[in-house]
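As agreed, record minuted below.
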Amino acid sequence: MDLFDSGTVRSLSVPNRAVFRPVRTRFVDDGRPTEELAAHLGARAAGGAGLVVGPAEMLVHPSASGPAFVDAYDDGTVSALTSVVDAVHDHDAKIVGQLTHTGAESRGDWEMQPQLAPSASPSDAAYEMPKTMTRDDIDEVLSGFGDAAANLDAAGFDGVELAAGPFSVLRQFLSPRYNAREDEYGGDWPARARFVNEAIDAVAGRIDGPVGLHLSLAELEYGGYGFDDVPAILDALQGFDYLSCTVGSHATYNQTHAGISAEAPELRDPIATAADAVDVPVIGRLPFTSVDDADALFDAGAEFVSFTRQLLADAETLAKADAGDRPNRCIQCNQKCLEAVYGHAHGGHVECVVNPRTGRESELPALSALDDAALPQQVLVVGGGAAGLRFAAVAAERGHDVTLREASDSLGGQLGLAAQGPLAPFARASEDLAAAARDAGVTVELESPVNAADVDPSWDAVVVATGATRPETGDRFDGEVVNAFDVLEGAEVGEEVLLFDENRWVVTAQTGLEILGRGASLEMVSSDHYPAFRTEQPNLPGFVAALQAQGAAFTGNHTVDSVAEDGTVTLRNTLTGEGASREPDTVVVVGRRQADESLYLELDEQRDDVYRVGDAVSPRKLDRAYYDGELLARRL
């Protein structure tokens, strides 16, 4: 079996076996999908996915609602959903709509109503006690599944999938953690499966296409069902035309969407167990499914392979793989695909660090579709970090003659320092950026520092991508302190270390784990409740757990007032003003960087055609380096 072979789900013919799984995008306006959502899904079909499943989290009943969800139960959504379908069909791909009811895993304050659930068993991801569903509630929700399915059918969807994964009342009915009912919907597996089977029947009776089931193979929660229960669960379920495998619940999404901070659960063996238990096609995935994972999933019994974050990182991954080209790879950072949506950051909709077009498909054409530059220019790029490399590659692809000069002996800038320990996947970004520049024909000159006097008038444009300087403590402390960035490069520390977190982001956790890995004891002091407080929510629990497991002590709501010449540290409680002192062997400060803007400012006085990108403008997260570089290259 090959990823690019055609496949069949009941009577639905699919052009290949690559599936784009639904992701929560927040491209919703008053319960209706937007043009941005249609463009987002259409881009994955254009990039080679044979089957698109989505939009994600389309609701079947008003008892589960909120600003991020599509109200599929509402007839008024049909027109907008038709636009989504057309955007996928325009590229000869198929689309299956996913229906859900969030049950206990959401909150009711959007509509000022209680959340319905199998039992009064609250999710650890929510703060509300749900309402136990009455028989009337059950009948209404089941009717909603049928009505929503009919709306999807009217919009032209090729099939319907029922979500029994995270954010799903269907999974909650299956779960001993959430379902403590004593009526015909609770008890043994056939009883707990009754509601799911009735929902499948309600949908199957209203559409002509296949009905799929997206099932968590284990909840990963205390008291929930586990991988060992898969055969019994699947024996009790019936009526679905394909099985899509996932894992976890909303409360465990830091594991199910594990990135750089936690190990994701191994799914190949559970998928193999599921495939042996059913006689319908199985869609399988791994935590960060790549094209290279397809054979392992086929060997496990899957007939289709689902991709999510890799197709956010590069919508054309499948087309490139089919042509033998190299895609840009997901770096597992969770900064935009998850944090942007669940943390409501970055505009509140799905994006991707390494792909500025993700979430902006209606604004930005695909890089492969960009017009050549109207006036090709001789361009000098100063700096071989992420911003400089991204600009150089895209500008060269558009026909500019680009030379990149880097002062050090390697490309990647601060990615080289970042990509160690838990952030090792960041090395993919550095490798892919450098490869793209080489493939585009960029002239790269290493160990070539640039001064303003070196930049002669023959260059049509100069792009300054000099990045940022390392944090400096200056004269703030009388005693000696060690820069966290130096620690990551190997600077020695004593046996007892106090780390002061002024950065508030992932580098704090990375530095702490490095210190603990050397066998030192560690106290982490932060003015927040705990260190690295601004780390993305999908990553933060994993880092906190890892630090605590290795013995780190957290001192929250404190700042360092002074470090004396003898090394004594004076702390101050930021809430009460109370003081305390410590006598560590080493004080490590995790500070913030500043823009290395001197070259740009000097050149800007001399010429009009100079630009700066990335941290040379202002030190920010990696996504802005990609964005700044690519956007300038698109318009130059």
